[in-house]
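Structure, all two chains, one model.
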Amino acid sequence: MTHALELSAVRKEYPPPTAVTALDGIDLVVDAGETVAIVGASGAGKSTLLSILGTLERPTSGSVRIAGTDTSALSDPQLSEVRATRLGFVFQQFFLLEHLTVLDNVATGLLYRGVPGRVRRQRAAEVLCEVGLEGRIRHRAGQLSGGERQRVAIARAIVGRPAVLLADEPTGNLDSATGAGIAELLSSRAGDGTTVVLITHNADVAASMRRQVHLRDGRIVADSRGQHAVAAPSS
Amino acid sequence: MPSRLRLPDAIGVATGGLRARRIRAALSALGIAIAVAAVVAVLGIADSAKADLLTQLGEQGNLLTVASAESINGRTVNLPDTAEPMIARIPPVQTVTAVGSVDNVTVRRSRAIPAEQSGGMNVLAAQGSLLPTMSAHLLLGRYLDAAAEHYPVTVLGYEAAKILGIGSLDTPTQILLGDHYFTVTGVLAPVTVAPEVDVAALISFGQAQQVFGRAAGPSRIYLRADPDQVADVAAVLTATTVPDGKDDVQVRRPSDLLVARIAAKGAFVGLFLGLGGIALLIAGVGIANIMVISVLERRGEIGLRRALGARRRHVAAQFLLESTLLAAAGGVLGIGLGVLATAVAARLGGNPVSVPPTALAAGLGAALLVGALAGLYPAGRAARLSPVEALRSL
């Protein structure tokens, strides 16, 4: 069976002066339609893991497979293609383009697929309806609240119907009620087969995902799915 | 399907980036605009002035002069009386006119002006054929006619009228030639190929002899020859003027003066173009500077675009296009300003407006080249940025 994501013995070491081992032998399998929260203290390696899952950086060793494709053998343009066609990203800082309207911000999610502008905007309008922002289509990003901005960022990430949605602290800049709404919106994407992997410090947000993976010092110390459950080191 | 960015989308992304920073973009484009305007205006103004000179050259290229090369005690030795009719008999010669310098006669407005303040003006005896031969025309009044042989009347050259302050002949106007008052009947327009006429008071040969005792014979002869045989005519003028070869004469082609002036204008064009090029270089450095700042400020956007699937070359193309479009906008504005400056300068100088198409193409081409070169380093820097570094920069 082909998994949505498959990491095998992944290590990530940063050279001096940092000289840090961010990930130390990660084995992780995520199936299509799963929702996974990666939790852990600061410095545990969560963001590095998400960057490697998202092909934004390469592991020092080990293999990363996305829908069965080994990404370690891919060139930089091919990795761009993987990101454009199979992955969606949501960031804590939203990264909206302030000079564009909400509609155009969302349409940017299809920009590097070569989709014509008219089609991009049409799909963006549909997705904005899905996230409840149909009334904000013509607004500028700067006119939105934090929760609305994150919904726009999620709409941009899902407008291309990616197989995997990766979210880095998506509720980190939001109040708890708004954050809960965002978490619910993300987990609801699993309904149509999208795999959702998010990083969070928030226990409630983590609990809203079906599976929780705990990292410590670059290693998986607990996995609620069971198959990767590892006893936490006694030290 | 590979990650790709359509050209219209690339242009849209680049213009969007510029629109997001309007004031900065406008100021940078203004630098290019001023430099391009300078280049276009220099070429345009020079071309307008040259067009006028070339027109004159076409009109005056077949004009020749013959003058005595000898003088005794500061007085010009006149050419033989027979010179003018002999020259007129040379077949390719179309028209001939003679003038005679009236030496040591001052030109003044009145006796209140000291004789030594004659303003560099002189008195010339002239014929009726002067106007057609020199393609000259009158600004005011009328030229010397048959009656002028017997009456003290004069026609002033353009500069002489200006020096004497005569701008209208609505009321009878007299000036003092030597100790004799002459009535001004006309004022000539500038005669580019014969500046000596511009500063002269023209009187008839009859009056020159009767009033000032001028000896017979012209001091200079002007002639127009068939344009295809100017050199041939010039070759026989000396022998025709002084068949016995006893006196020395000078044969000249006044249009050589125009050729020299055209060449002089070309020399200044090179200098000013060099200055325009330096201005363009400085404007390019300005664009490169703001593009580098832009890359630093927009690391988050670069990281986002890489996460959305942009290749390195897409990011490079975005910044390269931004700088090129910025320079192109400046170039178009500069061309407009340059053409406007040319039109104003040509109008003030009384020249036809002429902007060579190569100046427009060179202005825009230089702007595009400078913009592209200025964008190379920032674009490369943006493309080399690691997506993770870019996203973690905030």
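Helices of chain A lie at 46-53, 76-86, 102-107, 117-130, 146-158, 176-188, 203-207.
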